[in-house]
Amino acid sequence: MGGFIPDGHTEPILVGVYVAPRWRGGAAGVTDALLHAVETWARARSESITLEVHEDNLRAFAAYSKRGYVVTGNTRPYELDARSNEIEMRKMLR
């Protein structure tokens, strides 16, 4: 998991999210720790952070929603299969 700013006019973007199956779930705390680190970095640079999640990834939707991310209404075709979409989510940091 990491974050980057693609240009001077874009807010931070959360990317590269992957937690190995044995470390998933609230008890392990890995997702919360990684998100906290990326959000702390992003908070110093912007009032919000965005991410994209595949429309079929219900587990990720639930995890991000639980942590304050909301769907923005923006979508784009998924690069590996244009019949499906990536859904943008945003979290306000301040």
Question: Could you please describe the fold and organization of this structure?
Answer:
This protein has 94 residues and is α+β, with helices and mostly antiparallel strands. The protein has a single domain, classed as Aminopeptidase (3-Layer(aba) Sandwich), CATH 3.40.630.30. Helix content is 24%, strand content 36%. It has helices at residues 30-43, 58-66, and strands spanning 2-4, 13-15, 48-54, 70-78, 81-92. The protein has a 3-stranded antiparallel sheet. A two-stranded antiparallel sheet has the order 1-2. A hairpin with a 2-residue loop joins strand 4 (70-78) and strand 5.
Summarize the structure.
The protein is of the alpha+beta class and 94 residues long. Helix content is 24%, strand content 36%. The chain has helices at residues 30-43, 58-66, and strands spanning 2-4, 13-15, 48-54, 70-78, 81-92.
What's the SSE blueprint?
Layout: E1 2-4, E2 13-15, H1 30-43, E3 48-54, H2 58-66, E4 70-78, E5 81-92
Query: Remind me, CATH topology?
Result: Aminopeptidase
Placed side by side, the strands forming the largest sheet appear as: 3-5-4
Distance between the termini: 21 Å
Q: Which architecture name does CATH use?
A: 3-Layer(aba) Sandwich
H/E element sequence? EEHEHEE
- Kindly report the oligomeric state of this protein: single chain
> What composes the largest sheet?
3 strands, antiparallel
Key terms:
2 helices; alpha+beta; Aminopeptidase; globular; 24% helix
